[in-house]
Amino acid sequence: MKSVTLKELSLLLDGVIQGDDTLVITSVATLEHAKAGQISFLANSKYRAQLEATQASAVLLSAKDAQDYQGTALIVKDPYVGFARVAQYLDTTPKAASGIHPSAQIDPSAHLGEGVAIGANAVIGANVILGENVQIGAGVVLGQDVVIGSKTRLWANVTVYHDVHLGQDCIIHSGAVLGSDGFGYANERGQWIKIPQTGGVRIGDRVEIGANSTVDRGALGHTEIHSGVIIDNQVQIAHNDIIGENTAIAGSTTIAGSVTIGKYCIIGGNSAIAGHLSITDGVHISGSTNITSTVREPGLYSSATVAMDNKLWRKNTVRFRQLDELFQRVKTLEKNLKTPD
Are 249 and 268 in contact (CB under 8 A)? Predict the structure, then answer.
């Protein structure tokens, strides 16, 4: 178990202490469930009532919220960011691998940097390059010519096909598949002719990809995921997609091929984006939204219908089919009203 004094945390977060700076903190917790030795945070005013009753030894607060709080606090600019940094500092997550397990299969042509760890039954293919302090979990398979930057972690049973490059400080969770074939076929008189997917995948630094997500290789050029991108579980990134820096994609989202998404976008869970589109920087897409045309202006976009009583939904579905007929009738009525007798 790690521990740190409140004074040390204040230096880490550039914060101001209100109360006892010698308190020892061992972990983080919510306001409702925190106990002695833990630090909590208030980032949303609707939890203000929990602040007064919390048993946390200290609380991360904004200067405004700290004014009326009588307990020990660490005053920071953004309590939620402060919480994230403290949680990182006190993180006790075990390594994906330690040392090199004797059952690992490592091609003689692979290059392993200093401090590389490889778990049981992992397979490292020809000409693979692993940077310093890379962690390869149990059962991971790396195809030939894979390049992985320093301090990147691959958890158990990740599969990385040939010619995939990952940057530094990435995290790839279990079951993810990087570099599988894109869905490319030609049709000849009803028969599907497979188009070899000869591109690769290029992933920048500090990218996190969730469990069971897939990133297809490019058909000709590369599929690209730029630095700082975070991708949730069970997300599909198709061939030749380009995802801009620091974009976030929530779970079960599907992105068809040849889509370009800009920087600093947020895509809600269970969304679907049609192929060959562009989405500009700074776009926020609500969950369960279908994007079927290019988005040229930043802002919030939504398309999902709300849940309703099934009988009402059936009626509205029928009426939706009648919208064009209704539109034509209104258009005719408007024309007749404007036409003089």
Answer: no
Closest CA to 263 of 275, 279, 281, 241: 281
What pTM did the predictor assign?
A: 0.91
Query: Beta partners for 25?
Result: 4
Catalytic annotation present for 239? yes
d(CA 208, CA 174): 12
CA distances from 315 to 299, 311, 319 (A): 32, 6, 6
Nearest CA to 209 out of 183, 239, 178, 182 is that of 178
Please list the rounded mean pLDDT of every run of 10 residues in the chain (341 residues): 93 96 96 97 91 96 93 96 96 96 98 98 98 98 98 98 98 98 97 98 98 97 98 98 98 98 98 97 96 96 84 88 91 83 58
Residue holding tokens 């609500």? 286
Question: Of these residues, 226, 239, 276, 284, which one is catalytic?
Answer: 239
Listing from the earlier edge strand, what are the strands of the sheet with 236-237? 105-106, 123-124, 141-142, 159-160, 177-180, 214-216, 236-237, 254-255, 272-273, 290-291
Six-digit token string for 51 = 């602040």
Tokens of 86: 């403290």
Q: In whole angstroms, what is the distance from residue 28 CA to residue 37 CA? A: 9
Bridge partners (DSSP) listed for residue 59 = 40, 73
Neighbours of 262 (CB within 10 A): 19
Which structure tokens are listed for 17? Answer: 């202490």
Looking from the CA of 89 toward its CB, the CA atoms found within 13 Å total 21
End-to-end CA separation in angstroms for the chain = 89
d(CA 1, CA 138): 25
User: DSSP string of 43-86?
Assistant: -SGGGHHHHHH---SEEEE-HHHHTT--S-EEE-S-HHHHHHHH
pLDDT of amino acid 55: 97
